[in-house]
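Ticket #4471: complex job returned nothing on first submit. Input attached below:
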Amino acid sequence: MGTWFTEKQTDHFGITAKVNRSLHSEKTDFQDLEILETEEWGNMLVLDDMVMTTERDEFVYHEMLAHVPLFTHPSPKKVLVVGGGDGGVIREVLKHSSVEKAVLVEIDGKVIEYSKKYLPTIAGALDDERVEVKVTDGFMHIAKSEREYDVIMVDSTEPVGPAVSLFSRGFYEGISKALKEDGIFVAQTDNPWFKADLMKQVHADVKETFPITKVYTANIPTYPSGLWTFTMGSNIYHPLQVSDERFFEIDTKYYTEEIHKACFALPKFVKDLTKE
Amino acid sequence: MGTWFTEKQTDHFGITAKVNRSLHSEKTDFQDLEILETEEWGNMLVLDDMVMTTERDEFVYHEMLAHVPLFTHPSPKKVLVVGGGDGGVIREVLKHSSVEKAVLVEIDGKVIEYSKKYLPTIAGALDDERVEVKVTDGFMHIAKSEREYDVIMVDSTEPVGPAVSLFSRGFYEGISKALKEDGIFVAQTDNPWFKADLMKQVHADVKETFPITKVYTANIPTYPSGLWTFTMGSNIYHPLQVSDERFFEIDTKYYTEEIHKACFALPKFVKDLTKE
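Support reply: We reran it on our side without changes. The output follows.
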């Protein structure tokens, strides 16, 4: 049978993947980091026993976190990614020629280091000249920023360990201040099957801060339940009122203009979580 | 740790669920049948080691297989479900008051028997007076039917064991003949992550038979990859040209009018499978 890695996504359910070998394993200052070579998904980044990204299905998460807000904003120039040390979101951000500067603020330098080594198709973009990488605390970086960014994307782990502060109302208020007045915020907000309460709380908190708050979904096979949600907060621009001319051809495997419009249609039980 | 049931969805990947106890287990004339009481998903029907349905997430599959074609047809009166012995699709079909008769053709009577016993919220509808249950081969039933049904739904297992013949071009031709001239056909057609070739072949075959062929998706956590596809074949009615007045309030947990329109937007790598 060989070795299998099992992620318990809840106390009673999980996924399991055949592992050819462990490429790296260490306890960093912030979390347990492991890179596994799996048969089904290619190389896989695991933090605190949770799958963060895999070579095979990473495109879904990274494209959907980046392109939905970037196509909603009419001309994103300065973009901040909080977390996301694997570089996948930055790679997608750079596909927008309007972007002059993309700042990555990742708390754990080891994630960057080992993603560059073992996930080069994902992390390669971090060496681009438009990218500035800061190894520091995202919450603190946000607190010091004022009217600086067009789009802020929060690519965090789940709210355990170093990411706890990234799921707080104070954080969303900080983001609102760090954004330009017409800025857009987006965060990954887990799944409605196992984390309904979290999703509901985040939605309520973001809604307190941003006049336009919308949830969208994408299918990510290696994430819990496969149905992932993203929550967007915007002051002015509505993601479903994007002019047709705004969309341009882009090299993607998941995102399309049609998906942009469709991903906001929520299954009824998910939509119910966004109502007071 | 207790007992866990693991479904190997591919040779190198699977899901695993904590089992409180096995409620029933037998080798029927057609397949291995097991009903497990799980902690996360409630009672679970397993055929040939594959999860068929669970009490907790069954609504997604059953609603999406039934309501998308039923709301596309202006007035479905006679409906055939091939397979689906658990009764979930029939339950959804009966929510349409236009339906006068719903025929279920299931090859394995044991699936019906034990679904009624252990999945009563799913199978209870099979006792409705509008329902006729036939324990016989779906392929043969289709071959004997002519211009009889408004909608035919194929709720089969994957194309192994008794379901092999339900994924053949001859079967789709038989369905076309069994449908009234303005009839609609829909089948579950597996997932694009692990069964891309199957999906592609089915789409090409259905397209040979029906002028309007469309693929739509839904998220089903306990099915491989979580991204499930359905392929619809129609002679006249287009699922995206349904008059707004056609939609009526219906008691669902996943399907909505918005989802009906959005579920046909395919991720780019899935859409590519539907091109020649």
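The first strand of chain B starts at residue 3 and ends at 10. Closing as resolved unless it happens again.
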